[in-house]
Amino acid sequence: MPRKGLSREAIIDTAAALAEQKGAENLTLRELAETLGVKTASLYNHLQGLPELNARLAERALDRLMDTLETAMAGRTGAEGLRALADAYRSFAREQPQLYRAMVSLPRFSDPSLVERKYAFMDLFNRVLAPCRLPDDRRIHLSRTIRSALHGYCALTAAGFFQSPLASPDDSFDSLVALLCAAVEKEAQSYG
Question: How far is CA 79 from the centre of its chain?
Answer without folding.
Answer: 21
